[in-house]
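Recap from last week: sequence in, structure out.
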Amino acid sequence: MTPPHLPARAASALTAGERFRAGGWYFVLAIASAGILAAVPFWHAASRLARRDVRTLALTYTAAGVYLVILFSIMPPQQADGTSGNPTLSTIGGLSALFVMVIACIQLRSLRRAVYGGGGVVPVHADPVVARALGARARRQETRQLIAREPGLQRELGIGRPDLGRGYDDGGLIDVNTAQAEVIARVADIAPREAEAIVAGRTARGGSWYDMAELIDNVPLTPSAREQLQERAVF
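Predicted structure tokens:
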């Protein structure tokens, strides 16, 4: 006799701890702080999504939190019989906190899904931060192919020279033959002393490096700096 089929636990059924880590803390913080810290989840979402409207909400809830703190701080202490020292002010404070908590939770529902995904866990390639990094890498590869076909466009478009402000998005490349040390350090995310050594070395060689191999052979660089330059340097 075939035993009855028992349904497996749904893959999306998360434990309480998993739900908390996957955005549930947004609501817990907004409610547990009586709305005072409701801005924190909005700032977190704004940093992950890089959206102006979310940043505006974060500023709004920051102002609301300041308002609640001031309101609660001016409330007189309770009387000896346990009643409020100022019933009107207490009512205003309670209703204000409730309003902030309810509206924040409503607006956080969609933001939690946008940041953490509908199931509560963010797939790696759906993470906005990962998506931006992969997009920039693809743009760098496309730009390298472009200047390999049309070398003259490197100078015209300001490729590898964000300080020139030509407007072309090269994905974060850096021209190690023409950029100043501070620009090389900032774009390639290497130490200033390493960027200065790159500039000093190219000056000693007549103003330019031939390729990455020559640069690495002649400039003492940390492994992380070499990795960054291999990813971003153009010549």
